[in-house]
UniProtKB/TrEMBL annotation:
Major subcellular location class: membrane
Membrane topology label: Multi-pass membrane protein
NCBIfam families named in the record: ECF_T_CbiQ (TIGR02454)
Keywords attached to this entry: Cell membrane, Membrane, Transmembrane, Transmembrane helix
Domain of life: Bacteria
Location in or out of the cell: Cell membrane
UniProt-listed GO biological process terms: cobalt ion transport
UniProt keyword annotation of Hydrolase present: no
Keyword Coiled coil recorded: no
Name recorded for this polypeptide: Cobalt ECF transporter T component CbiQ
GO CC list: ATP-binding cassette (ABC) transporter complex
Classification lineage: Bacteria, Bacillati, Bacillota, Clostridia, Eubacteriales
Organism of this sequence: Clostridium estertheticum
Length: 317
């Protein structure tokens, strides 16, 4: 066969065996940093588009005036922060689950997004508070009996290291409280378009420059992600063999510098385009907010829910 018509050796031999469907032979080929970066960016963009689709649904929360939603969210978060009863916080969370279902938010997503992360990070933060050297109280479990006080630098530990009921109850309360507040924030922001949410924040009398900065940062992130994706795809399309770690680090460092230069130039172009289109510092959206009977009913329901929560805490002690 003519050498011009032969398939190159580098295309026939990847250097690694592929796995058969059952996985009994061969070894799995690890993806390069280019593939991982491209896949991560694509996954992020896919999630953002998915949440934008939720905001465009015709659910219950989507029909509310964004200004009322912002005020309601602040009231509910303050209520969750001031409540000290886990049972009442659980009821508030169950109500939020009902609202999520009525707003076409997947309960699986709603639960997984919050409760697979919040207990881990919050639990690490409050872990020391369950021990008696931080919060003394009734002993639940005795861990170590030193026989004497232990001095560790400026810290002084008691002779008996125990887990107290007051510490555990306080830790559980904090984890549940954080989970409920984060769930409410996630629910309200997911069911509200970003442009509407920014305009609704003007109800809180936030400065225009603050709102504009938030809007530009949000939009700019996706522009930079698209630029980054183009850079990595271009690199991958011109790469015929596996890069070494040194070459990969060299490319990443060059990409960071190039991305910084492009972002700086793009910021000037975007701002110039905004000024040429009549931008005066106030974000403008096409639709107008309207206060309806549904908004009034919702706000009254929030007030009743808050009063019931505080009343329940007084009754339950």
């Amino acid at each position: 066969m003519d050498s011009k018509n032969q398939v190159p050796d580098w295309l026939l031999n990847s250097g690694e065996l592929g796995m058969c469907p059952c996985g009994c032979i061969g070894k799995r080929k690890k993806g390069s940093f280019l593939e991982k970066t491209i896949n991560s960016i694509a996954k992020l963009l896919k999630e953002v588009i998915f949440f934008e689709d939720i905001a465009f649904q015709k659910g219950f929360l989507q029909k509310l005036d964004p200004r009322i939603k912002v005020i309601s969210l602040i009231i509910l978060i303050l209520t969750s922060t001031l409540i000290h009863n886990v049972f009442i916080l659980t009821i508030l969370y169950l109500i939020s689950c009902i609202l999520a279902k009525m707003s076409y938010v997947s309960l699986k997503l709603y639960f997984k997004r919050i409760w697979l992360i919040t207990p881990l990070f919050t639990g690490i933060a409050v872990l020391p508070s369950i021990f008696n050297f931080v919060r003394p109280g009734t002993t639940l479990v005795t861990l170590i009996n030193f026989g004497h006080k232990v001095h560790l630098g400026p810290l002084i530990f008691p002779s008996v290291l125990t887990i107290t009921s007051q510490g555990v109850s306080g830790a559980v309360l904090l984890i549940v409280r954080v989970g409920v507040t984060v769930s409410l924030a996630f629910l309200f922001t997911t069911t509200t378009r970003w442009a509407n949410l920014l305009k609704a924040l003007r109800v809180l009398l936030l400065p225009k420059i603050f709102i504009t900065t938030l809007e530009m940062c949000y939009r700019y992130i996706f522009i930079l992600l698209n630029i980054t994706t183009d850079m990595f795809v271009a690199r991958k399309s011109r790469t015929f063999s596996k890069d070494s770690s040194k070459e990969g680090r060299h490319f990443v460092s060059n990409a960071i510098g190039s991305l910084f230069g492009k972002s700086y130039a793009l910021s000037e172009e975007v701002y110039g385009a905004m000024l040429s289109r009549g931008y005066k510092g106030e974000p403008v959206i096409m639709n107008r907010f309207r206060f309806t009977l549904l908004d009034l009913q919702w706000f009254l329901g929030v007030i009743i829910c808050v009063l019931a929560a505080f009343g329940g805490e007084i009754i339950l002690g």
